[in-house]
Design goal:
Blueprint lengths: L2 H5 L3 H9 L6 H54 L3 E3 L14 E7 L5 E9 L4 E7 L5 E4 L6 E2 L7 E2 L1 E10 L27 E2 L10 E2 L2 E9 L3 E6 L15 E15 L4 E15 L7 E9 L23 H11 L26 E3 L1
Antiparallel strand pairs: 1-2, 2-3, 3-4, 4-5, 4-7, 5-6, 8-11, 9-10, 11-12, 13-14, 13-16, 14-15
């Protein structure tokens, strides 16, 4: 290197050039170290973010798979059940706002099999419980049917929302009840909700209903499913939809007619049968049938031992009265409709004091 070129270099560089050494100053080394450190931290942050994304993706896949597994289990439960219903009160005696879904079936020997799913919103868990009519809950022994109260099923964690809603047939097209309300367009005429009592459910006073479905919403942070469940063991797809019931009563109406300025009189007795239905647990009721069960159209003479007691009318039992009612009106009145008209020979009680019901 010429002296003129060497003189143009910085002193340190000139010395390195003169000695033939190649190296860095402390400042250059610090700058290089800082750049390497920055690249390392940036790469580490990127790797950490990628690991978190992979971990979340794995957790999301696991969560979605868990929701799908639970949805399949609920469908299998419904397929093997005689009844699927949401009771009025949950397992803790609180009002059931969709947090509990119950199933009912029977063992081969006739023993009732009852199980439920309960959603704990605070813990975000959905858990199965086997139970019996006495209230004991836990895990059922498949051979003996005995409930082991010390055992529990593992809960499904991470469930952010669960709700079971009974949808009767006449509300399948109502968007206020059915998330798939567009199904209503498939019907040529709106289906009807028929009042049916499913009295075979042990201790299931709320297990009454008719044709319909249980719509279940199941959601986690990674997946959401909506299921329409119907009891598969019933050939018509019968499910417990929770509201309408009927009852039959027999009541007596006494009438007295005075004539000849009140010096003479005639008594008439009517024995009537009435069948009522309700779609709101008896907050209101609708008359399905009201007919003269015993006596001719003018009533019975209580003093005539040969009075015509209509021998062809049914006995005073509710199932017989219901059968006679179905002969008059095969289907009950629809929800929110008017009473069906009474038979022409039926006399409604004019005054409470003139009527004795039993």
């Amino acid at each position: 290197m010429s002296r003129q070129a060497a003189d143009s270099l910085p002193a340190g560089s000139a010395r390195r050039a003169a000695s033939g050494d190649c190296g860095f100053t402390i400042l250059e080394a610090l700058i290089a170290t800082g750049i390497v450190t920055l690249i390392a931290f940036t790469g580490l942050a990127a790797c950490k973010a990628m690991a978190q994304v992979m971990l979340w993706s794995s957790g999301a896949r696991h969560s979605a798979a868990s929701v799908d597994t639970q949805a399949a289990q609920l469908r299998n439960d419904a397929a093997s059940a005689f009844a699927v219903f949401a009771p009025e009160s949950d397992m803790y005696g609180r009002m059931n706002d969709g947090q509990e879904l119950d199933f009912y079936s029977k063992a081969d020997d006739g023993r009732p099999i009852l199980w439920r799913y309960f959603y704990a919103a605070a813990a975000q868990t959905l858990q199965r419980w086997d139970f019996d009519p006495t209230g004991a809950r836990g895990v059922r022994d498949a051979k003996t049917g005995v409930i082991d109260a010390a055992a529990t099923y593992p809960p499904l964690n991470g469930i952010t929302h669960f709700r079971a809603t009974a949808i009767s047939a006449d509300r399948l097209g109502d968007p206020a009840y059915n998330i798939y309300s567009g199904i209503g367009a498939l019907f040529t005429r709106p289906p009807r909700a028929l009042p049916v009592r499913y009295a075979a459910v042990p201790g299931g006073s709320a297990a009454v209903g008719g044709n319909g479905v249980m719509q279940v919403s199941l959601t986690s942070q990674a997946a959401a499913r909506v299921l329409d469940l119907a009891a598969g063991s019933m050939p018509t797809g019968f499910t417990i939809s929770g509201a309408p019931v009927w009852h039959a009563i027999v009541y007596r109406v006494d009438q007295s007619h005075r004539f000849l300025l009140g010096t003479a009189g005639k008594s008439h007795v009517f024995i009537n049968a009435r069948v009522d239905v309700s779609y709101d647990h008896w907050a209101s009721k609708i008359a399905w049938c009201d007919f003269n069960l015993l006596g001719n159209p003018d009533g019975l003479d209580p003093h005539d031992p040969h009075a015509d007691y209509k021998p062809n009318e049914p006995l005073e039992r509710s199932e017989n009265i219901l059968a006679a009612c179905r002969q008059r009106h095969p289907l009950p009145p629809a929800r929110n409709s008017a009473d069906n008209p009474a038979d022409p020979d039926t006399v409604r009680p004019p005054l409470r004091r003139q009527t004795t019901a039993r």
